[in-house]
Amino acid sequence: MVIRALNRKIKRLEFKIKYKKYKFAENSFLPFIEFEAQNCKNIIVDKSVSFRQGCALRVRSSGILEIGEGTAFNNNCIITCREKIKIGRHVLFGPNVAIFDHDHDFRGNDFEHEFVTDEIDIGNNVWIGANVTILKGTKIGDNAVIGANAVVFGNIPENAIYINEVKNKLTLYK
């Protein structure tokens, strides 16, 4: 038990030294997740934020990531930020949630695709179920519940329950 606590303190210190230009509150701990910060503007992780195994944070290309107090991520959650992702206080994420504030612009004829970005804003006291994907341009209001397996885009009002109906649709692009 003592060795485990000492190892955790060493990992926390290594993490703070490596990423000292970003703000991580004392009770939030990230060393056991995959973490990438490439040329990003700012990362703020408030106090008592927790991550389970297999989570990944990737902040790139002048991205801004803010995670509010008391937010909890279950196993295998992925956040990839190129513009801005803001997550409020006391948000609960089920396992396998993916959050992307960008898409690939795939309409070109070569493999040098650009990114299309838009901010994501998740309110306070939101509950996000298992296997949810949150796409660019999404705003989720306070106290909302997002059902399992949902693909979320656009505006979800506060105090709403959001689920996807299962429909198959084929659309051709030009």
UniProtKB/TrEMBL annotation:
InterPro entries: Hexapep, Hexapeptide_acetyltransf, Trimer_LpxA-like_sf. Keywords: Acyltransferase, Transferase. GO terms for molecular function: galactoside O-acetyltransferase activity. It is an enzyme of class 2 (transferase). CDD domains: LbH_MAT_like (cd04647). Gene3D superfamilies: Hexapeptide repeat proteins (2.160.10.10). The keyword Cell membrane does not apply. Pfam families: Hexapep (PF00132). Its EC number is 2.3.1.18. This is Galactoside O-acetyltransferase. It comes from [Ruminococcus] torques. The lineage of its organism: Bacteria, Bacillati, Bacillota, Clostridia, Lachnospirales. The gene is lacA_1.
